[in-house]
C-alpha cells in the first residue's frame, strides 16, 4: 500500500517537492493564489473522518470514528496541558499545541485508516516521503490554502516534534486510544494479537507516565477524561435517519477547528485563540448531562430553553466543576458558560461567541446537507437545511458563511 501511495505522490501535476515557500503569496501555476486558511474543502476533509472507522477489525460495542478520537484527544490535551502548567509553573504555547493537533489530524485524514502500528512504522522509516505525499494531497484536495499555514504544516511533518506541546499531544493520543481499547478489550480476548496490542498501548502510557500521573494527581483521577468520552456515545439528530452519523463530541471538534482557522485568518492574539478554540470544543459539554435537545424543540416549547439553561448550570456546578482543580475553575466557567455570547474579561480576555455560533450553525448545516448528498434524507433534514441557510444568511459574523455554503454545494455537485 505504501509503495502505491508514494508512487502516486510523485506523479501529481504539481508535486510538493517543487514548491518553494516564501513569505509572499504562493502561486500554483494555474492562476490560483493561496489566500486564507478557512475553507470548506478543508472542513469537508475533517468531517469525512467520521467515515474512518477505528478498530474495525475488532468487535466493537459502538462505532469508533477518527473524528471522535481526534476530538477526545483534543480535550484530553487541554487537561494534560493545564496540569503541566500547574505542576511546573510554565506557560505552554497553546497556539502551537492546537495547530499541531490540527496538523496531525490532517495527516491522519490523508493517510486514511492504515492500522496504527503500520502507520507509525511507515512514518519512522519513510518520514520524508510521507510528508511529501501528505502535502501533495493537501494541495490537490484543498487548493488556495494559506502559504504560511502550509509552511508550518510542512515543518511539523518533517520535524522531530520534540516540544513539550508535542509530548502533551502524544500522551493525549495514547490516553484516548487506551480509553477506546478498554471498551473493546473484553469482547476481543480471543482475537489474535490482542494481548500484544494491550502491551503496546500500556508501554506508551508508561513512556508518558510522568505527564499522565501529574494530571491524575492534580485532577484527582481521570473522571474528566471519561466524562468527555461519554459525548462519543451521544448521536446527533437521533430521531431522523442520517449518514454519516455524528456524535456531540465529533461535532464539537469540527466547530473548534473551524473557529481556529477563522481566527488564524483574522490574526487574533494567542489568548483569544485559546479562548475561542476551547469554548468551541466544550460548547456542548453540558449535553453529557442533558442529552442533545434539538434547536427547534428548544425554541418552540415555551420556557424550555430557560429551564434547560437553569438545569444545566445546576448540573455543571454539582457534577463537572468538582472534577476541575480549584485554580482552573473560574477560567473553565468563563469558557463553558454562554459560549455563543461575545464577552471580554480583563482577567481571561475576549471570546468571540457569535463567531463560534456561526461555526456551530455551519457544522449542523454540513451534517444535514451531506446526508442528503449521500442519499439519506427526511423531512426533518430538509427543513433543518432550509432553516439553517435562512438563519446563516441573516447572521452577522466575520466568517463568510455564504462562501462556505456555496463551496459545499460545489463539492456536492462533483
Number of domains: 1
Q: Which structural class best describes the helix and strand composition?
A: mainly alpha
Largest sheet: 2 strands, antiparallel
Which percent bin holds the helix content?
A: 55-70%
Give the overall shape, derived from the CA principal axes. Answer: globular
Specify the CATH homologous superfamily: Hypothetical protein af1432
The count of β-strands is 4
Instruction: Write down the Rg.
Output: 21 Å
CATH class: Mainly Alpha
> H/E series, N to C?
HHEEHHHHHHHHHHHHHHHEEHHH
Helix/strand layout:
Elements: H1 2-10, H2 40-47, E1 53-54, E2 64-65, H3 66-88, H4 94-110, H5 116-125, H6 127-141, H7 147-158, H8 164-184, H9 194-207, H10 209-218, H11 223-230, H12 248-266, H13 270-281, H14 287-290, H15 295-300, H16 304-320, H17 329-336, E3 343-345, E4 349-351, H18 353-374, H19 379-393, H20 401-412
Antiparallel strand pairs: 1-2, 3-4
Amino acid at each position: 500500500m505504501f509503495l502505491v501511495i508514494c508512487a502516486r505522490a510523485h506523479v501529481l501535476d504539481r508535486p510538493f517537492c517543487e514548491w518553494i515557500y516564501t513569505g509572499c503569496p504562493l502561486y500554483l501555476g494555474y492562476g490560483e493564489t493561496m489566500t486564507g486558511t478557512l475553507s470548506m474543502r478543508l472542513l469537508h476533509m475533517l468531517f469525512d473522518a467520521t467515515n474512518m472507522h477505528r478498530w474495525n477489525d475488532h468487535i466493537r460495542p459502538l462505532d469508533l470514528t477518527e473524528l471522535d478520537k481526534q476530538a477526545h484527544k483534543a480535550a484530553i490535551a487541554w487537561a494534560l496541558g493545564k496540569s503541566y502548567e500547574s505542576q511546573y509553573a510554565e506557560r505552554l504555547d497553546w497556539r502551537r499545541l492546537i495547530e499541531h493537533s490540527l496538523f496531525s489530524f490532517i495527516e491522519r485524514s490523508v493517510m486514511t485508516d492504515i492500522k496504527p502500528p503500520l502507520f507509525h512504522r511507515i512514518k519512522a522509516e519513510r518520514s520524508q516521503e510521507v510528508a511529501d505525499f501528505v502535502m501533495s494531497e493537501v494541495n490537490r484536495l484543498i487548493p488556495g490554502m494559506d502559504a504560511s499555514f502550509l509552511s508550518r504544516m510542512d515543518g511539523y511533518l518533517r520535524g522531530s516534534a520534540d516540544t513539550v506541546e508535542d509530548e502533551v499531544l502524544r500522551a493525549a493520543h495514547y490516553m484516548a486510544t487506551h480509553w477506546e481499547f478498554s471498551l473493546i478489550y473484553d469482547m476481543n480476548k480471543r482475537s489474535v494479537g490482542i494481548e500484544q496490542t494491550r502491551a503496546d498501548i500500556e508501554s506508551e502510557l508508561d513512556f508518558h507516565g510522568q505527564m499522565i500521573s501529574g494530571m491524575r494527581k492534580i485532577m484527582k483521577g481521570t473522571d474528566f477524561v471519561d466524562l468527555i468520552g461519554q459525548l462519543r456515545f451521544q448521536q446527533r439528530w437521533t430521531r431522523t435517519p442520517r449518514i454519516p452519523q455524528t456524535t456531540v463530541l465529533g461535532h464539537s471538534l469540527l466547530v473548534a477547528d473551524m473557529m481556529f482557522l477563522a481566527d488564524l485568518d483574522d490574526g487574533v492574539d494567542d489568548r483569544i485563540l485559546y479562548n475561542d478554540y476551547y469554548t468551541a470544543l466544550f460548547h456542548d459539554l453540558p449535553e453529557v448531562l442533558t442529552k442533545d435537545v434539538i434547536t427547534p424543540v428548544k425554541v418552540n416549547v415555551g420556557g424550555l430553553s430557560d429551564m434547560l439553561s437553569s438545569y444545566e448550570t445546576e448540573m455543571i456546578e454539582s457534577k463537572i466543576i468538582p472534577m476541575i482543580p480549584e485554580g482552573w475553575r473560574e477560567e473553565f466557567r468563563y469558557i463553558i458558560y454562554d459560549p455563543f455570547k461575545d464577552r471580554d474579561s480583563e482577567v481571561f480576555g475576549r471570546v468571540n461567541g457569535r463567531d463560534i455560533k456561526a461555526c456551530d450553525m455551519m457544522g449542523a448545516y454540513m451534517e444535514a446537507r451531506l446526508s442528503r448528498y449521500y442519499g439519506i434524507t427526511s423531512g426533518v433534514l430538509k427543513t433543518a437545511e432550509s432553516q439553517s441557510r435562512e438563519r446563516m444568511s441573516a447572521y452577522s459574523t466575520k466568517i463568510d458563511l455564504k462562501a462556505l455554503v456555496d463551496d459545499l454545494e460545489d463539492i456536492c455537485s462533483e
